[in-house]
Amino acid sequence: MTKLNSFKKFLSISEVNRTIIIIILSFVIYILNPFFYTGANFKLLATWGSVYALMVLGQMLYLVTGGIDLSFGGVICISNVFVAMFVIWYGLPIWLAVLIVLIVGAAIGFSIALFSNAFSPPLKFLLPVFIYTIMLSFVLTGIARIITGAFPIYGFPDYYGFIGKGKLGPVPITFVYLIIITVIFVFIFYFRSLGWHFFATGLNDEVARKMGVNVKRTRLIAFTLGSLIQAFVGIIIGSYLSVGSVLIGPSYLLPVLAGAFIGGISLAGGEGSPYGAILGGFAVYLIENIIVVLAISAFWKEVATGLFLFLFVLFDFYQKRRRVFSIKA
Amino acid sequence: MKEIIRVENLTKRYENVVALNNVSFTTHKKEIIGLVGDNGAGKSTLLNILVGLYTPDEGKIYLNGKETKFFSPADARKKGIEIVYQFENLIEGMTIHKNFFMGREVIKRGVLDNKLMRKKSEEALEKIGISKSSDQLIEELSGGQRQAVALGRAFHFGKNVLLLDEPTTGLSLKEVDKTLKRIKLIRNKAAMSIIFVTHNLRHILPIADRIIVLYHGEKVLDKRVEHTSVEELTKMITTRIKKEDHVDKTKFI
Questions:
Q1: Cβ–Cβ of A203/B91 closer than 8 Å?
Q2: Which of chain A's termini has less CB crowding within 10 Å, N or C?
Q3: Where is A167: in which H helix or E strand?
Q4: What is the pTM of this model?
């Protein structure tokens, strides 16, 4: 019984259902176009699915602790532009440019938590986070435009591409990052007190505080790590495309939020799992991939993502309603 | 009987309002004190000071004979002060054992020792007469069972004082009865003093040793239960009367 419970802790029934739906969907796509199950497409899925999954993992740290990050597009944008600027314009070594950008990303997350903690209470926590991250999204993208004049920055040395395009054997490097970061997530969320505090803070910050959880510190850690991951994603995408561009970042906002909700990470806080985040990230990229594989007009991508999100969330709402009624009964 | 907590001349003001005015009292080991008063009498302010949420403007607090201050709820908990609120004691969406040990997790070899925490929480609940799997979610419990979990946690961790803030409000008669029995069990098994805040004299009189009445922030009555009556208490709760006549000089033995 205990073994079953620990298994359920990692994989809830709703996550099993989500996985089955995605597997069935990909099988249907395979029947429609066998190219879907080729090595080349798998490589693409593993590379970009991992990038999306990393973004959802970063977002998960905000959502689980009762916040939301609307600034991560801006963080990704400024990160790839900064690395290009430092390396190509100022001749900094890549490792130093990457380090500076990671620190900037972490500092942005830290500032979000600092600002939101200062105004909540009395405000509901989500309100200052919402306003501040919207502001950051505009400001960071704007700064990147001011710096570059909205022109892409080219001229990276070839080896910079390894960060995004490299491989370990046949495995894309982005998938390796995903595995490492997931292991860290699982360790923190399920084996350390901090994981309990993340969930408790998101579920009910007032009671968590009464129980002795340092809610403000918990959010500082979560948001700092969340934005650190987004800065890393900015570096990865910049490296993959070998460019520093203001076009990278802002467009990911809605798909990644959709990915988080598809993965069962609740906007209400305190709910979600690293596995769900990965599932959500891959699902969002899968939709994009399917559009390409089936050679459907790209205009249908938004429609498909929206409907997919609706389907999953509806399924989730239905399950929750059934559970609440069964408890009341 | 050993003194546990002593407050002397505790005063708390909110701008122009005096919420607590010069309140002093002492509690003893294994003593249940009923703290009663109307809305705005200062009961919650007093509890919030004792639990580290508010800082008093004046006055001193002694714990086991030593002067102390409670800087935060975590600090008060470290000093052996536990509180059970009327509502909002537990986090829905989490299991009993997580609610039990939240903020005081047991770590073994660098990781959470869930097995031990499950066992300890189930044992503590059994000691106060409730048998539940620690893996059960809070939302699956009734109001009385939730209150039992909160009491079990306070019993497990409490060393000095257990503060009960209207723990019987909103419960059915059967659940009130069970909760009062559990409070008595805790009194008998633990070496704490219990301060039971309530509006309802019928709930407190059968189990309390002493009653303290607050009126508009002042202590107006402090008597052993056998030296007072429902009539006197009702009068003291609702009307301002010269307090000197209503402070029991009998020492707690």
A1: yes
A2: C
A3: strand A167-168
A4: 0.86
Torsion of CA A86, A92, A95, A98, to 10 degrees: -10
* Interface probe, candidates A193, A198, A206, chain B, greatest B C-beta count within 10 A: A193
CA distance B229 to chain A (A): 35
A7: exposed, middle or buried (Cβ count in 10 Å: 0-12, 13-18, 19+): exposed
Work out the minimum CA distance from A123 to partner chain B, whole angstroms.
19
- Torsion angles phi and psi, residue B35, rounded to 5: -105, 110
A211 touches B: beta carbon within 8 Å: yes
CB contact under 8 Å between A207 and B89, yes or no, is yes
Instruction: Nearest by CB to A191, from B93, B112, B140: name it.
Output: B112
Q: Is the bond preceding residue A122 a cis peptide, omega within 30 degrees?
A: yes
The per-residue b/e assignment along A209-226, b for 16 or more CB within 10 angstroms, e otherwise, is bbbbbbbbebbbbbbbbb
A204 and B102 within 8 Å at the Cβ level: the answer is: no
Q: CA-to-CA distance for B56 and B80, rounded, in angstroms?
A: 19
The lowest-confidence range among A122-126, A245-249, B66-70, B193-197 is A122-126
Question: Which site among B47, B85, B86, B91 would you substitute to test the A interface, given the most A Cβ atoms closer than 10 Å to its Cβ?
Answer: B91
Q: Which one, of B199, B163, B203, lies nearest residue B4 by Cα?
A: B163
A264–chain B nearest CA distance, Å: 14
Residue A62: pLDDT band (50, 70, 90) is: very high
A-chain CB neighbours of B88 within 8 Å are 204, 206-207, 210
Between A132 and A160, whose confidence is greater?
Answer: A132
Query: Which residues have C-beta within 8 Å of that of residue B75, sequence separation ≥ 6?
Result: B52
ipTM over 0.85: no
Backbone angles phi, psi at A278, to 5 degrees: -65, -45
Model confidence at B185, in pLDDT bands (50, 70, 90)?
confident
Top pLDDT among A299 and A254 is at A254
Element (H, E) at A171: strand A171-172
Residues B141-173: tens digit of each pLDDT: 888 888 889 989 988 888 889 999 888 888 888
Confidence of residue A291 (pLDDT cuts 50, 70, 90): confident
Contact state of B139 with A213 under an 8 Å Cβ cutoff: no
* Residue closest to B252 by CA, chosen among B193, B190, B183, B182: B193
What confidence score (pLDDT) does residue A317 get?
Answer: 76
pLDDT > 70 fraction of chain A, expressed in percent and rounded: 94
